[in-house]
Amino acid sequence: MSDLFSVLLWFPDGSCNVERRGLDAEAAVRFAHSLTKRPAALLGAIARVTIIDDEDCTVFDWRDQQGVVFPNGEGTPPKEWVPPRKGV
Question: What distances in angstroms separate CA 6 from CA 17, 24, 54, 55, 85, one per listed residue?
């Protein structure tokens, strides 16, 4: 895992936007948390907030109506997560 992170903002239509890049871990968590508390999130205009490292690994995932789904305390990805196929 890298020392730099990006925060992605997902919309109800499935599109996403990289809101911030190159953040340290603390700044990424603070910014992601602020996104989940904004009026847009409370009204359902923000569907998901994800933190990824510079290798595109998800290290945090929040979803509207569900809250934090990863890490979930068990160290397992969300249920619909499918590992990449080998050789692809």
Answer: 10, 9, 7, 10, 24
Cis amide linkage into residue 71, ω under 30° from 0: yes
Task: Determine the Cα–Cα distance for residues 64 and 45; give it in Å rounded to an integer.
Answer: 9
Q: pLDDT tens-digit profile of 13-62?
A: 999 999 999 999 999 999 999 999 999 988 999 999 999 998 888 999 99
Gap between the Cα atoms of 13 and 3, Å rounded: 31
**pTM metric for this prediction:** 0.78
C-alpha to C-alpha distance for 42 and 35, rounded to whole angstroms: 10
